[in-house]
Amino acid sequence: MFEQIERVPGDAILGLIEAFNKDTNPQKVDLGVGVYRDARGNTPIMRAVKEAEALLLKNETTKSYIGSHGDPRYGEVTLPLVLGADSPVLAEKRASATQSPGGTGALRLAADFIKSKLPGKDIWVSDPTWPNHLGIFPAAGLTLHKYPYVDSDNRLDFDGMLGALKQIPQGDVVLLHACCHNPTGFDLTREQWQQVLEVVRERGLLPLIDFAYQGFGDGLEEDAYGARLMAENLDEVLITSSYSKNFGIYRERTGCFIAIAKNTEQMENVRSQMAIVARENYSNPPAHGSAIVCEILTSAELAAVWRDELTEMRDRINGLRRDFVEALKPHGLDGTFAHVAEQRGMFSYTGLKPDQVDRLRDEYGIYMVRSGRANVAGLSSENLPYVTEAIAAVSK
Ligand code: PLP
Ligand code: TYF
Predict the structure, then answer these.
(1) What stretch(es) of the chain map to CATH 3.40.640.10?
(2) Model confidence over 332-351: pLDDT tens digits?
(3) Domain 65-298: which topology?
(4) CB-based pocket (< 6 A), ligand 1
(5) Which H or E run includes 125?
(6) Which of 161, 188, 291, 330 is 20 to 30 A distant from 130 in Cα terms?
(7) In the predicted model, is pLDDT for residue 12 greater than 90?
(8) What's the pLDDT band for 97 if we cut at 50, 70, 90?
(9) pLDDT over 90 at 295, yes or no
(10) Do the interacting molecules here have an ipTM over 0.95?
(11) How many CB atoms lie within 10 A of CB 229?
(12) Spelled out in words, what is the top-level CATH class assigned to the domain 8-45+302-395?
């Protein structure tokens, strides 16, 4: 039977890890996969996480199942973080949280829920978007369409986006990146979010907000602006959140599917369906990551340590954005790359073309995605001169 199975290429982003590891260039720089790196290029375990794990090791009493919705405490700490501690949506008991295996797992829950319970609804994603969006929704049987997001000058194409949203059939689902857009780094302003809200309302669209980088842009509260605007002004919103990045617990698979409904009754109905969707996928979510998050967010002390560490990561990335543009000044390229300082999050659509990306890899051992997406966190004061020299050379 298997003789008819074809081999397919692996994930282009994850493939960069292997290619980078194989490279023997001592000056090589990894700007590929989206994991945070410190000034020494490491992705360390956060101090708050280590402390929480020590407590768990000591105090954990069982490894029994935690239930299809996950640990109830996890929802109790996640909802206020995402929606705001004094969110009217929480006061009105309109939000439900289902723990998921990473943000990816939450996206799959969303996709399966839409497919089975909202038949006939297509999904619209930004062009470009995180490549896994293009896989997950069709894999669940949804029809996927794209709306424009970046123009040919490598700038946010907000007019194009809004114009396309106005054409989406009534009632379809529109995926919005809450902040730190992957892969471009271009985020909406508050005014632009307001305009998107109006269109979503007019056309009766269901927003699905992918929130994978809370705290990496401008701050935990600031980054939630768009998600909260939608949640507080619409009857129905879906949010998929992830702790992979902001707690640095990528491999613990710690995410959340949030459903906001018109009232408690409808929320509970949706919630009951989500338990089935989860059960049909993996039964119960993994528990270690959620236990870490609960341990930290229910301790004022650990939460403060975590917030400081997150601030440090965010400040480092935003500082690197400015340093990068500054370092390109002597090459006369600071104007060409000025947008890098304005973008937010781990990623930057640099505007470098695939042939330039190939040259950076082959001639300099600098790795990024062929679309020109660079992980800014891979930069450091040490490699910045080398990287900017190389970019200047391939930009001639
Ligand atoms: N959504 C976006 C846009 C992402 O970049 C990621 C990151 O990997 C995710 C969702 C899901 O992350 P994870 O499944 O690792 O929590
Ligand atoms: O975009 C990134 O680099 C991160 C990590 O299949 C990632 O979101 C990339 C590809 C993938 C899973 C995670």
Answers:
(1) 65-298
(2) 999 999 999 999 999 999 99
(3) Aspartate Aminotransferase; domain 2 (3.40.640)
(4) 34, 102-104, 130, 177, 182, 210, 212, 242, 244, 250, 255
(5) strand 123-127
(6) 291
(7) no
(8) very high
(9) yes
(10) yes
(11) 18
(12) alpha beta
